[in-house]
Sequence to fold (438 residues):
Amino acid sequence: MTTYSTYRPDRAPGRPQALPAENPEVDLLRWPDVARVPGGPVRAAVAARLVRSIARRLGLRVELPGGRTLVAAPDGAPTLRLHRPSDFHRRIGAGGLIGFGESYQAGDWDSPDLVPLLTALAASPGTLVPPRLQGLRRWHAQRPPAAERPSPENAQRNIGRHYDLSNELFALFLDPSMTYSSALFPTDVAQLPRVEWGALQPGQHRKIDRLLDLARVGPGSRLLEIGTGWGELALRAADRGAHVVTLTLSEEQRALARRRIADAGHEGRVDVRLCDYRSAEGRYDAVVSVEMIEAVGRPYWPAYFATLDRVLVPGGRAALQAITMPHERMLASAGTYTWILKYIFPGGQIPSTEGLAQSAAEHTGLRLTHSQAFGPHYAQTLRLWRERFTERADEVAALGFDHVFHRMWELYLAYSEAGFRTGYLDVQHLLFTREEQP
Fold:
């Protein structure tokens, strides 16, 4: 098992060289860019003014140590509570939103209710920085390091940094199906004040079944799954009588998926392979992939769709579940190194529906013929995961994950939930079918 003690987040290029201070509460070897507080008093002063301006414009309350108020707001307003204001502003001045995330990991700031604060910030990501300063973005924003591009040489390492952390870690906050993607609840969740934990596993099965129905997977179907997870979709496809080849780059996931498949008596129907999608072999009636396209990266979308086109038989169908964002935001954020890319999903790229459809049409005979969005369901799914993760903090620590990791994942889950609550992010079922020659 890959343990946390071997996990080392890659250092981002261009990290400031002026390092006048370190946070003694943070392990320098595990978290070099969280332990070190960058220099730059001028940039810190600019960041402080920008934070105050954003807070006033969005109606946020900003508190200083001792309960003092820096920016006032009505009772109940989302609150940013600064514990170390100087470090907070220095990190943002040097690293922008990466510094914002690292500052949370370090404990420089907090919030009594993290999701509403992040939701307010996520509601208008393109307008947080005033237009007069946006021209400086290209000089300030970091580019993703070449070592994290999702190329054939790097893809397995990128996947391992997230999915090979520990099966036991994921089991602490996922439902018994071990499904790490959006559930689909039986009603419009926008009409529900709260979805309870007991609805999560049925919601995951409902999602899987709808995707298998979309791909027309049934008795005797030859199914290729790209992105095994921990095997639940392959198990449900095998229950239908399908023959499944499922691909993963995670050794941890493959090991547990194989055990679960053996325990279910489906070894003869499901073949779990440690294999990059580009190396897929065989011919299939259907391809299904759940929230894997986000790891492919835009430069490699043509290769991804070419694989689908190559392996599908005439009349075959490819059903994808994909996290998406508006096309203009995808274009605006392309090529920018973010906190999520640095610490959570190296090499990732959230696509747009338009971008995927265009890539498939330009490079293959595949065409997008159906799409159905259910983003609010993901916000509820993430809330359930986040609450479960937080409740089991002692068990997370017992696995060897320190408080910086815990705060990192707390922010990741809350940040993602906020994205789906605002509509900045969505999740969709997409069906691609081949244009057959007359």
In short: The mean pLDDT is 91. The chain has two domains: 4-142, 148-434. The CA atoms of residues 218 and 240 lie 5 Å apart.
